[in-house]
Amino acid sequence: MVTIRVILLEPLYGGNIGSVARVMMNFGFRDLVLVNPPVIGDEARTFASNPNAIDFLESATVVGSFEEAIHDSNLVVGTTSKMGETENRHVRMPAYSPKALKAKFDGKKGNVSLVFGREDRGLSSNELSRCDIIAVIPTSASYPVMNISHAVAIFLYELQDLSPGQYPLADRYNKDLLYEHIHEFLHKIPYPQHKLEKTALMIKRILGRAELTGREVQTLRGVLKRTERAIKEGRESER
Amino acid sequence: MVTIRVILLEPLYGGNIGSVARVMMNFGFRDLVLVNPPVIGDEARTFASNPNAIDFLESATVVGSFEEAIHDSNLVVGTTSKMGETENRHVRMPAYSPKALKAKFDGKKGNVSLVFGREDRGLSSNELSRCDIIAVIPTSASYPVMNISHAVAIFLYELQDLSPGQYPLADRYNKDLLYEHIHEFLHKIPYPQHKLEKTALMIKRILGRAELTGREVQTLRGVLKRTERAIKEGRESER
Lengths: 239, 239
Prior knowledge:
CATH topology of the largest domain in chain A: Alpha/beta knot
Number of domains of chain A: 2
Distance between the termini of chain A: 43 Å
Oligomer: homodimer
CATH architecture of the largest domain in chain A: 3-Layer(aba) Sandwich
Strand content of chain A: 15-25%
């Protein structure tokens, strides 16, 4: 079974944090992590509304960095209201709808973090690039920017009854090692420097949506190591 | 194509009204009716957030009664966070999920009103009994009461891209005449008085979810009239 963590990255307004706590309770979710939030005050408690939701709000985990929030997540989903543009498309694309996430997580096993950015400017490109996959709620093109608690409501509504399963998602630590490995690898081959970062991110997006198991991550790293050895030795292996 | 109206019945807080206006804009809906709302002030405008959403909020139709709000609706959907109990089950049951409403409205034609009750006590039994069908968002049993704007968000998210169609829903006026006719009819047959109101409501719920066309409504009224005539004449018709 996939368990869902909601991460609010540097939320600005207590009212929204309280609203998020309330809607998490509505849909039975209990893992809220706040990255550098404002002090939780009366406004947040008012919006949480129900005494249990207020308790839950006050017991939310508070951390000082994005890395701390996601360190034990098998898969990190960055949410955005902006669809990708050509310029930096691998940062924001391909984007999954809440329904597609539901289909993706049914029958899997692991910890998934849903990350919501600041109310005024969302997640930065750098933060999005640290996510495995990107998700966007289909909205009207003329005013796509939703209130953060509305966005959380819709994701949790879709993800509230995921089917259990045993397909184990790779852990964050080994996946990050793989991503770093790929990045280093691109430096070792004659790859155009100006394309390198984009390609590394593109590969990350491909692997992110492939829902790798731990075994697959190890196998891919093995392939990279053996390829590096072949490059170093300057020859193809004898068959 | 079904067009959706959002009706807030005696909403208490401007912030929620503004939030509802914002999420309607997010999903491209443009028909908001407020029944006896508070004065639209700064709080409502703050929560609407976007200038277009503020304009939209300020142009919402304000009426003084539920009847005025629904008079031109082919189908009225009452929303509730409480599932039906045995006592008055026809008031609250059967309840449709947002996904089931989407399936129901795809390919139809007419005006549908989604009615949301007061933040503190929702819609009364009497108000629910005036709705054709009832809808409920599946939530955690331990804290099912959602913020009103979150509930609107989830319904509109599901209903944002209904398939067009030509199946015409019967108009409110003729459907109300049919319902009244059924009610009167039950008085004309030897029906236990203490069951009469419940049964009338049960029949309304059955017909409500059957999505009658205008022609079907006329036919049913014709059947009732001919039945009444047969009763009056005290005999079965000759075959």
